[in-house]
Design brief:
The chain is mainly beta. It has four helices and 13 strands. The chain has a twelve-stranded antiparallel beta barrel. The two termini are about 35 Å apart. This is MipA/OmpV family protein. Belongs to the MipA/OmpV family. It is found in: Cell outer membrane.
Length: about 250
């Protein structure tokens, strides 16, 4: 199985759709994910769901943050994020892809800044590969706006991810040795900007029990979709589940 950046975005929307100070939520859900790599079918995976919002610390699914500064409209934090993208040739159905090297998931350390207004919220984030799997750097600029109803909160979002050359070449490049083993063309990827749109929903069943869902659609940039490892122009992820608020 492989998981792409859509899961990271969906998980972030899932956790922040209605975050309030002092709130801790725990639950379980499932992810439907379209892999960008050739030789993978769409797959569904069970995932734990967790979020916590404190005065100085938060957990938003795959990201933990230490808040350096916060007021009514702004939040600046140091972040640690588990980046779930990986590639395992043993799990792939394509005979050429089976002859490539493994690409591993990694942890990224960086920072994030949020600015909140009545018209919505802006997020600016940058982080680097702390485990040096790719040695890459990633950034994000996004906008989201929670729409609160009686029991339902809808949070549409739009944004763009930046991935540098090291990150893209590790996950999508094909080295000379891999090309000779697999028959795929040798390929070196450059940096890229990946736009996405998303929608999260949170419905309150009882005082403590919630139904959650988030969906993300991504358009793959040229430096990704031109890789011989990739066989699509876009990608989609859907996360659903139930959480209990303590």
């Amino acid at each position: 199985m492989t998981v792409n950046k859509n899961l990271l975005i969906a998980a972030t929307l899932f956790a922040t759709s209605s975050a309030m100070a002092g709130e801790f939520s725990l639950g379980a859900g499932a992810v439907f994910n379209e892999s960008p790599y050739k030789g993978y079918n769409e797959n569904t995976t069970a995932v734990p769901l967790m979020s916590y919002e404190g005065d100085r610390f938060y957990v938003r699914q795959t990201t933990g943050g230490w808040i350096l500064w916060k007021d009514g409209k702004n939040e600046l934090s140091l972040t640690a994020t588990w980046m779930p993208l990986h590639f395992d040739p043993d799990d792939n159905d394509d005979h050429q892809m089976k002859n490539l090297d493994e690409r591993k998931a990694s942890a990224f350390l960086g920072g994030a800044y949020y600015h909140h207004e009545s018209w919505g919220s802006l997020k600016f984030a940058v982080s680097g590969d702390a485990m040096d799997e790719s040695g890459g750097v990633m950034g994000e600029v996004s906008y989201f706006h929670p729409i609160r109803m009686e029991r339902l909160i809808l949070t549409p979002s739009v944004g763009v991810f930046y991935s540098d050359e090291s990150y893209n070449d590790y996950y999508y490049g094909v080295s000379g040795n891999e090309s000779r083993r697999s028959g795929l063309d040798e390929y070196k990827a450059g940096d890229s900007w990946t736009p996405y749109v998303g929608l999260a929903a949170k419905y309150q069943l009882t005082q403590s029990l919630f139904l959650n869902a988030s969906a993300v659609y991504t358009v793959l940039p040229d430096d990704v979709k031109n890789s011989p490892m990739i066989d699509r122009d876009d990608s989609f992820a859907l996360m659903t589940g139930m959480t209990w608020r303590f």
